[in-house]
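lol so apparently i was supposed to do this last week
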Amino acid sequence: MNAYDFAHQIDAVRHRADVLGNQAKISPLPSSEILHQCLEELNTALEELHVAEEELRQQNEELATARQAMELERQRYQELFEFAPDGYLVTDPQGKIQEANRAAARLLCTSQKFLKGKLLINFIPENERRAFRSRLLRLHEMEQIQDWEVRMQTREGIRFDAAISVTMVRDNEGNLNGWRWLVRNITARKQAEAQMHAIRLENLQLQEASRMKSQFLAVMSHELRTPMNAILGFSQLLLRLPYHQFPPQARNMVERIFNSAKRLLALIEDILDFSKLESGRLELRLQEFNLAELVTATTEELRCLAEQKHLTLYIYINLSNPNIINDSDRVRQILVNLLSNAIKFTDIGGVSVEVMEIQDRIMLIVKDTGIGIAKADLKKIFQEFRQVNQCLTRKQGGTGLGLAIVDQLVHLMKGNITVESKLGEGSTFRVELPRIVSS
Ligand code: ADP
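anyway here it is w/ adenosine-5'-diphosphate bound
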């Protein structure tokens, strides 16, 4: 029952009372009977009214409960709006702010009260307002825009980067009624992006610088190698002259020129190799060769160095098939670098070279009883120009390129190198290579 039904019912009772009144006027019955009849009728009407009143009361209660629930729900939404971490604004179709939550006020450094009635465009820097306006006009066709990035400004004019999402609000007829804005400060994100960009740029510059360095090294090494070959060639020719044509003092000088030039050339070769390896320009010249022969010949070449220091030098070769496919010059280079280091850093005891096979892999082991390497230095020794014991290595000579070249070569061959060492007891370098290296 609603208020309309109830009014209807009262009308009906009134009508019946009127009818009764009229009947009483014209009725032939005695007045006590008429009165009784009227009372009866009135009683019935009263009861009906009671029922109606009860129904109405119940409905009123239900209505009050529903209103309370609605109010609670409204409060909940209001709180959600108020305390949302992002700025929320509601504007009319022209962009005049009707509502703003706390975060929005915080973002624009002002109060919610101040924001009401202001135009949102006031919080866009002047030089960007035209673009903002035209974007706003285009909004009418789009209904919604996600993550529109704009520059905004606080009430005091402090600028910040903001990401905005806008949704159209329509009335019951579907006409534009306003806009709902979600505004987020993305200055920190923008700064991080700018930093990332700067780092990327710096990285590119570093890569370019490193490429230039490698190129410079390659060119320089090539330019240095040419005159070195001339010095070596001519000093070698001089050394071949008969004794009577060459005073001993002069011979000694030429010998020193020859040896120094040889060392310098080796150094230049190392730099050249390293720059090529670093820039990925070194290519392996693959061919089949006998590894046992190569290891024996190379070790024998270095035997005199070991003998000068009274060191023993042993070779153990255990290969069922000594033929492998690889770049023989580069395998030799690996062995020479490891072996000359082993001899260089050993004063007592000896050095051994061992070759064996494990399935389709070849293992090359160079062991010495020398000064050893501290655990903390083991990782560093493969880095270019790293020399662990500076004073000792200065005495022994060297550039710190040998192991870096070995490491890069081994990886180019898809192999692996490991080292085990104990200070004062010696070192063991293990190189594992595939039997067949493919390009
Ligand atoms: P270097 O030209 O100085 O020998 P390397 O790259 O060949 O350069 O070696 C780097 C450093 O690793 C050496 O200076 C030395 O300190 C250490 N090292 C290499 N091999 C050995 C070894 N067999 N015993 C002890 N130390 C070694």
